[in-house]
Predict the structure of LysR family transcriptional regulator.
Amino acid sequence: MVNIDFSKDIIEATRYFIKVVELGSYSSVKKFYNVELNTIKSKIDTLETYLGVKLIQNIHNRITPTKNGVKYYHSCSKIYKDLESTIDSVKNNGFKERRAIRVLGSPLSIKVTIDRVIPKLNQDSTSNLRFTLDNYALNHFDGKEYQFETYDVILINTRHLEHIDLNDWIVCKSINSTKLPALIYGDKNLIKDMHNEPQKVLETDLVFNRYDWDHNIFNFTHKEDEEDNHQNKMYRFNPNKVKYLVSNEVQKANIIKKEKVIGFMPKFYYDSLMKDSEYIDFVRGFEVDFHIESFLVLVYKYSKHKDKLVEIFRTELIELLGNDLDDPSKN
């Protein structure tokens, strides 16, 4: 067994490894840190020996991380950069306390955090807060990529709970799996002749979230008679009209605002992402049953901000999700 000084060799090797992943070559790291190539290679070899896994590989003369290397990079890079930032801050500003709050969630939940939660935290705080906001893809979530205990708040689907030790977390808010009414949105000029015209909806290009596609959310209802559901007719979006397939609702909203396409989402998504756009409206007469997966808002029980985080997240989410209990066609 090789005797390796963890504090010196492993931390230094991790620093080189992170930069190799980011720059893609040993020579670039050599220039960045002004060290010899053999030093970089030797340190990374030492790191791989210590961990017992292969971290990097040479593909077409480009150094890339292995699958395990990607996991190690995601586990270490943010922590290391936060350490560098802290050292730099102390150097430039001295020991002025700057309390950091770290949040992990889907792109939409991060958008909600930015719009609704952070302003309240800043308003209630007597000191200067720093926020670190990281998002993950719902369909590509691997718990090994994240060190959850470094976060103050995690907004996570319940199907991913296997990655988390709930003994360390406070359940701030839980949302059960349900179906919510969603409306079809688009540019006002684009949709002006689509109201109560299902054939025109079927002929128009679409933007879909991959989540919509994976959950087979293709059906929509033409509500011909609001008083008599028996008069409603069911239609199915044409998959061949899906012009954009995106990875999250934030991207979907941006496409709806910029391109000649239509897309559907629940009202509370619209309120968070497109309500401020004067050019976007919903197509009258149609509704989509939108599947919402169950999710939890978790607050780390050892966070020094836990009481305030629980209070504000719970209040803001109740207010936001409560809006969707109303008729989504009403503003």
Remarks:
- DSSP finds eleven helices and 15 strands in the chain.
- The two ends are 68 Å apart (CA to CA).
